[in-house]
């Protein structure tokens, strides 16, 4: 018996079978039974919205969420169109008790926070998006569209809805489309993806993660196919991988309508844009009263196409 305790343990599994490779630290664990810490399961029970806004934010960014609620994230932003706004959060270990209390108070006031128990890090943004897709699939499958956005954008929802989303479509996704791009292999890059995580040289076409819009039916299909694919740490590229697995292509938007770079505010120009990236919440609060003023010009750009 003593001799048996000193013998080394043999690897588990059948003889001749190579153990599964160890998951790379940059590869988010998925599928995984993440638990909703904050949830809004009843939001769509009475009526399915036309558009669900899924906004990725950090748990501590209370001021940023407040600014978005007052500007483009206002659920009354498009008269006559039902919009539902939800913020996507992970968890943070720093000041967890105090932060938890603040988030519960914020959620009590606004009922618009979704949070699961994965770490809120840049490389887990894929998990945030999949959390949003899971929520739509389980609790709001009748939504016509889903828009995923980052917190540092300007969005013009009236222009988006009336110019690009009517009449409602199926198997549809559009935004700033990237084609023939590949993973960055140098560790110094923020967007570093090792071959162990994604071995191919190029990504399938995908929409830049700052903001993209997809039909509600496609949200459920992306969530379901994601359960069968190796997840990567680049959220927007992973959505493109899901689209390829589904046999669904991306729809190009007119050049410049989704801007992945910062543009100085000018009302007439912004009235013809859907998204401007690198637009901070404090900038939104500054320009929004002018952009939405009743006497604003360029309103003809909001009329639907014939």
Comma- or semicolon-separated keywords:
three-stranded mixed sheet, alpha/beta, disordered N terminus, about 300 residues, eight-stranded mixed sheet, Spore Coat Polysaccharide Biosynthesis Protein SpsA, Chain A, globular, transmembrane helix, 11 strands, about 30% helix
Describe the structure.
The chain is α/β, with parallel strands linked by helices. It has a single domain, classed as Spore Coat Polysaccharide Biosynthesis Protein SpsA, Chain A. Helix content is 30%, strand content 19%. It has an 8-stranded mixed β-sheet with strand order 1-4-3-2-5-8-7-9, with helices on both faces. A 3-stranded mixed β-sheet has the order 6-11-10, with no helix packed on it. Strand 3, helix 3 and strand 4 form a beta-alpha-beta unit. Helix 2 runs parallel beside helix 9, helix 4 packs across helix 6 and helix 6 crosses helix 7. The N terminus and C terminus are likely disordered.
């Amino acid at each position: 018996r003593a001799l048996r305790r000193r013998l080394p343990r043999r690897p588990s599994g059948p003889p001749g079978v190579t153990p599964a490779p160890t998951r790379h630290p940059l590869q988010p664990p998925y599928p995984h039974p993440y638990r909703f810490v904050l949830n809004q399961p009843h939001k769509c029970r009475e009526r399915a919205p036309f558009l669900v806004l899924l906004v990725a934010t950090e748990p501590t960014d209370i001021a940023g969420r407040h600014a978005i609620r007052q500007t483009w994230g206002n659920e009354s932003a498009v008269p006559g169109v039902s919009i539902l706004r939800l913020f996507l959060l992970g968890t943070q270990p720093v000041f967890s008790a105090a932060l938890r209390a603040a988030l519960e108070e914020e959620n009590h006031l606004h009922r618009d926070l979704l949070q699961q128990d994965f770490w809120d890090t840049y490389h887990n943004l894929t998990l945030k998006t999949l959390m949003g897709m899971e929520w739509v699939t389980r609790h709001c499958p009748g939504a016509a569209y889903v828009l995923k956005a980052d917190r540092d954008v300007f969005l013009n929802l009236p222009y988006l809805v009336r110019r690009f989303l009517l009449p409602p479509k199926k198997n549809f996704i559009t935004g700033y489309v990237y084609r023939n791009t590949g993973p960055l292999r140098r560790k110094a890059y923020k967007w570093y993806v090792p071959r162990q995580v994604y071995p191919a040289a190029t990504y399938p076409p995908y929409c830049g993660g700052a903001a993209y819009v997809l039909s509600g039916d496609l949200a459920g299909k992306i969530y379901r196919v994601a359960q069968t694919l190796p997840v990567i740490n680049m959220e927007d590229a992973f959505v493109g991988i899901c689209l390829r697995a589904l046999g669904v292509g991306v729809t190009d938007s007119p050049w410049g309508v989704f801007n992945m770079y910062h543009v100085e505010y000018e009302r007439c120009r912004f009235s013809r844009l859907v998204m401007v990236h690198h637009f901070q919440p404090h900038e939104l609060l500054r320009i929004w009263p002018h952009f939405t003023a009743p006497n604003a010009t360029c309103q003809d750009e909001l009329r639907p196409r014939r």
